[in-house]
What we know:
Blueprint: H1 3-19, H2 24-32, H3 38-44, H4 51-63, H5 70-78, H6 83-97, H7 104-118, H8 126-185, H9 187-190, H10 200-208, H11 215-250, H12 260-270, H13 272-321
Helix pairs in contact: 1-4, 1-6, 5-6, 7-8, 8-10, 8-11, 10-11
Amino acid sequence: MDDAERRVIRRWKPIIAEHVVVTSELVQSLKECGLLTDDKMRQIIQVGDNESTKTSRLIDVVLSSPLDGAFATLCFVLSRDYGWIARDMDTDARVEKGDIVIDEDVLREAGMLVHRKFGSSKRFCETDKKDMQELLALKLQVSREEWQRENEKLQAALNVSRATVATREARAKKLVRALAGFVKENSDHLTTHAHGMITTSDSLKKSLEDVHKDGLGRLEGALDELLKRFNTVLTHRQMLHQERDKCLKMMEVKDERMPLDAALRGFLQTKRPLEDDLQSLARDLSEKDAAFKRMTTKIFDLESELNEKDDIIESLTAQLGAPPP
Length: 325
């Protein structure tokens, strides 16, 4: 740490003592950066001391540190929670070292401001006016450089955002092309011939061909349609699972993971003896039914013969009972 940096720290010591709170995290960060030792940490944090005393003791320890770059380390640690203090201290150090070069236009602008305000005033001599011009020019130059740094940061962040947006747009367009290819390749599977219904294929094509949306918007529309269709598929899948469970229960299958076709084959093999008995019973019933039909036919024939015999008997009886001629 050079003399200019020490002068800046001493000048900023009251402000730091007023605003900075010495916490264990702050002290630990300074230790990790090599600015404090364990003995110095215990010396700074003592029970009963108020915050102003702790901060003042911390500044004294930093001022006595032999570490190269102690000033930059202190500004770095303070920038995490006290960015404005770290930024202004760094600017003051640059001014103290004479590292800030004042631009000609800034110096002229400062001179114009001083002349406009105090040009005809007799209270200040020319030397005082020149000092005010230099001081004002220095402040303007510092403000300009800070604005330029912030502008560069914002420009870099903007470029990153633009690159991110471009990358996302490219990825979205790639996904749109992939989805369009999927629709084209699976057109038969995505199309239903139900009358009056919008098919999955038509719905996806409509979402992908919307010229009023960018790639991401079209992709979002297509994904919304896919999610709706998937929701329907999942609902039907759940219904099929429930029907499958009912079938397994009816077939008295204990293993719920068994495929339905395997369970059905096992069920048919288990019930085959009953099927054979039923077929045998059906054959017996068929034979008995045929015999019954034959017997019925014979009965009809016998009844016909009996009727004929009755007619003959009646005829003979009539002849026997008739008087002789």
